[in-house]
Design a protein that fits this description.
By secondary structure, the protein is α/β, with parallel strands linked by helices. The protein has helices at 40-48, 70-76, 93-100, 107-120, 122-126, 137-149, 167-182, 194-199, 218-223, 225-231; strands at 2-11, 14-24, 29-34, 55-60, 63-64, 78-81, 155-159, 186-190, 203-208, 211-217. The chain has a domain at 1-76 and 186-234: 3-Layer(aba) Sandwich (Rossmann fold). Helices cover 39% and strands 26% of the residues. The radius of gyration is 17 Å and the shape is globular.
Length: 234
């Protein structure tokens, strides 16, 4: 579904991503792990066209998307859940969710999608009239994922969904990530908790200093001595 070839991202003279190549198959959950500053978030932002890559190509469902506008990436079926959530703090939960559905014309389908999101996140239904900026960090993360789902994506890009959350909320968020994946969603996941990321994915890529240094099925990476030493605290 997603094919990234020779992707290169730079900020001035800083090389953040160095000509990486990888792919994500339809229906897969793929983890991208690595230390802070490895280039993971820059990779997702470049795919979503939030930032411009300086080299390489991105193909989605066989179509080149590496030069199109960010809003057209959403229309093609890719939704980014950014690091830090990025909710509209002065809008209500419900208004945030409707913002995620702006590309759709059918009110009937939008309401259907809203019920779907509330099914995944009953807490959001309870808070639908509350300003997003007053939610807890975990609730804001639920809202960010729910808003992305409202665009009816073919693929979710999840950037650090557990960052700053209490363990019980991390568990809830990843229960939903697994449920969404089980319902057929394709997911590219960046997660600071490498063990958790690999446990809920089929394959993984390890990034170091802007390059992919290791890849394979998630079970093999969990057993790899280098991965265990560098990212699993062993």
């Amino acid at each position: 579904m997603l094919e990234v070839t020779g992707l290169h991202v730079a900020y001035g003279g800083i090389q953040a991503v160095r000509s990486i190549t990888f792919h994500v198959n339809q229906g897969e959950t793929v983890a991208l792990i690595g230390a802070n500053g490895a280039g993971k978030s820059s990779t997702l932002k470049a795919i979503a066209r939030v930032i411009d890559a300086v080299g390489g190509d991105v193909h989605f469902c066989g179509e080149k998307i590496s030069k199109i506008a960010p809003h057209d990436v959403i229309r093609k079926g890719i939704a980014l859940v950014p690091e830090g959530r990025g909710v509209f703090s002065r809008l209500t939960v419900l208004e945030n969710l409707y913002m995620g559905a702006y590309i759709h014309d059918s009110a009937v389908n939008v309401e259907k999608d809203l019920k779907m999101v509330f099914g995944y996140f009953p807490r959001l239904k309870e808070r639908e009239s509350q300003l997003a900026g007053t939610l807890s960090g975990g609730e804001q993360q639920m809202l960010a994922i729910g808003r992305a789902l409202m665009s009816r994506p073919k693929m979710l890009l999840l950037d650090e969904p557990s960052m700053g959350l209490a363990p019980i909320m991390v568990q809830k968020i990843f229960e939903v990530v697994r449920a969404v994946a089980a319902d057929g969603m394709t997911i590219l996941l960046i997660e600071q908790n490498a063990k958790l990321a690999l446990q809920c994915s089929q394959r993984g890529y390890v990034m170091e200093s802007g390059e992919i240094t290791l890849n394979g099925d998630s079970a093999s990476l969990l057993d790899d001595p280098k991965v265990r030493a560098a990212y699993l605290g062993e």
